[in-house]
From TrEMBL:
<dbReference type="GO" id="GO:0009089">
    <property type="term" value="P:lysine biosynthetic process via diaminopimelate"/>
</dbReference>
<feature type="binding site">
    <location>
        <begin position="284"/>
        <end position="287"/>
    </location>
    <ligand>
        <name>pyridoxal 5'-phosphate</name>
    </ligand>
</feature>
<feature type="binding site">
    <location>
        <position position="237"/>
    </location>
    <ligand>
        <name>pyridoxal 5'-phosphate</name>
    </ligand>
</feature>
<dbReference type="InterPro" id="IPR022644">
    <property type="entry name" value="De-COase2_N"/>
</dbReference>
<keyword id="KW-0456">Lyase</keyword>
<feature type="binding site">
    <location>
        <position position="382"/>
    </location>
    <ligand>
        <name>substrate</name>
    </ligand>
</feature>
<keyword id="KW-0028">Amino-acid biosynthesis</keyword>
<dbReference type="InterPro" id="IPR009006">
    <property type="entry name" value="Ala_racemase/Decarboxylase_C"/>
</dbReference>
<comment type="similarity">
    <text>Belongs to the Orn/Lys/Arg decarboxylase class-II family. LysA subfamily.</text>
</comment>
<dbReference type="InterPro" id="IPR002986">
    <property type="entry name" value="DAP_deCOOHase_LysA"/>
</dbReference>
<feature type="binding site">
    <location>
        <position position="323"/>
    </location>
    <ligand>
        <name>substrate</name>
    </ligand>
</feature>
<feature type="binding site">
    <location>
        <position position="354"/>
    </location>
    <ligand>
        <name>substrate</name>
    </ligand>
</feature>
<keyword id="KW-0663">Pyridoxal phosphate</keyword>
<comment type="function">
    <text>Specifically catalyzes the decarboxylation of meso-diaminopimelate (meso-DAP) to L-lysine.</text>
</comment>
<dbReference type="Pfam" id="PF02784">
    <property type="entry name" value="Orn_Arg_deC_N"/>
</dbReference>
<keyword id="KW-0210">Decarboxylase</keyword>
<feature type="active site" description="Proton donor">
    <location>
        <position position="353"/>
    </location>
</feature>
Amino acid sequence: MLHFYYKSDELYCEGVPIRKIAEEFGTPIYIYSKAQITQNFELLKNSLRNSKILYALKANSNPSILKILSKLGAGADTVSAGEIYIALNSGFKPEEISFAGVGKYDDEIKFALENDIFSLNIESPQELLIVNEIAKSLNKTARILIRVNPDINAQTHPYISTGIKTSKFGIDPNEAIDVFKKATNLTNVELLGIHTHIGSQIVSVEPFVETAEFILRYIEKLEKNGVKISHIDFGGGLGVKYKNAIVNDKLPFEENDDKELNPELFANEILPILEKTGCELIFEPGRFIIANAGIIVGKVLYTKKSKVKNFIITDISMTELIRPALYKAYHQIVPVILKSEEIEIADIVGPVCETSDFIAIDRKIPSVSRGDYIVVMTAGAYGFVSSSNYNARPRPAEILIDGENYYLIRERETFEDLLSKTLMTKI
Ligand SMILES: Cc1ncc(COP(=O)(O)O)c(C=O)c1O
Ligand SMILES: N[C@@H](CCCC[NH3+])C(=O)O
């Protein structure tokens, strides 16, 4: 069930009309549904049974959202010391936090070790030695998993495919055997297990099955080499539905529909394979938990029509949602009030000075006019976290809805914020 819905042709989130939020807090603005976050997390948790779910902060790291997830029993998957810092300050205990990433700074490794987080996921032979060295200097033992690159095509956009052999992530499986062996001999490292993450927005289960089978075979190979492990971190990547996210008679239906990965099917296919290893299982989903729990609300600034193209110019731009510019990603766009039966085709764009600043190209949408509120659906993941101040645009506010109530969970930036870290030289 989607917690964004139309009631008498007006869009609501849970018990709150979206128009009300836009009028009170202005646009553009991000709005999240607590009920949706909870529903998504519970669905995954029930499907994945006894596995540990470490929510990937990179998808959305607003502390109020993290607090909800930590209370529901999630841990945190992080990719920088900044994310570890946010996780620690949003309710996660150190022993629930893992730290991945190909380019950890020495200071970040130190920060992770000083805070005694659950694990560091090692991405190169060199990193293993550096982590051991830093742990030694701190008189600590680093718990580690080793990320292996299984060379599996995740069947997703190439820019978010991370498990093919030419990608920078993880270690080649053949080379990694020696890295595992080495890890068992180092003084300040405790080897926990293997980590894989083949990519993001994966909607078919096959690449995941292939990965699980790879891991099973790999663990047997490790055992033959005298290496025993206790943990498998399977990564994240579960894909969501972007097209026809919300369906209504007055909205055009996207014929070339898409689907999301069914978590029950995912679990039923993956768990029996991984459970054969007797290892503790960890998953790191981000998008699946938060994507459809968030929207961006904006306002139509101008409608510009010509014989060549129609443009709907809005106050939502690539600075609030970079996914269309980065990957030509599709997001459904709907009016807050369904007042028009007429459908037009237009490019929906923002004010930023880049031709790639579009939210949709040649998109069918009910006719809108200047001043109307519009919504970008499925924008809870990789929305605010990838926002920027490009063109000196202050970042928008974020609102969390819980039933009839709503809370400001991040203030809108001001012009003062744009200058706040700058220093005027005396020259
Ligand atoms: C190591 C790692 N874990 C988890 C994730 C979360 O991915 P997703 O949001 O697709 O579930 C990512 C991002 O792709 C990642 O790089
Ligand atoms: N930014 C990407 C996902 C990145 C995945 C992180 N490894 C997106 O919006 O789909």
